[in-house]
Amino acid sequence: MDVALADRCSKRTGHLFIALNNQTEQDRHLRVEVIVPGGMPEKQEHRFELLSCPGPESAVKITDPLVEDALDWMPKYLEKGIILWIGVAWNENVKGRRNVQVILRDDDGNVIGSRIIKTRVLAGESNISRQRLRRMLKARLKGETSLPIVDSATSL
User: Fold this and answer.
1) Which residues face 49 on adjacent strands?
2) What's phi and psi for 130, nearest 5 deg?
3) For 68-114, how does the pLDDT look when each residue is reduced to its tens digit (9 = 90+)?
4) Phi and psi, residue 90, nearest 5°
5) Which is the CATH superfamily of the domain at 2-136?
């Protein structure tokens, strides 16, 4: 299980990504629990069947024209794996450093894995978001002013 969440969540919202692969010999029914203290909702649960995709017997090279390499394995993992994109949000009174917990369980409720991710919840937009928006607007304005003005009546 791999998880990712931005270091800063603007406007009390964020995007949590969870990637899962089943490297066992059998297909499995699993649950992913996402716990967001102070969140809306505080707990989410997702159930699914994860197809078997045993890994290679030994280390593989990144690329090799003669044997199975990492470029051959990536499509297998993407095809049989699951990637969850989950929106997370916090109540209006929540801000500052917060933890998000992701728990992977089997059908019997046994914990297979658990991760805690830290983020900073911001009430407004982060400086990074504002800077990105300013750069996009500046690039758009620069692109518009650098285009030559053509008068359709005189160019015919």
Assistant:
1) 29
2) -65, -40
3) 888 888 888 889 999 999 999 999 889 899 999 999 999 899 999 99
4) -120, 155
5) Immunoglobulins (2.60.40.10)
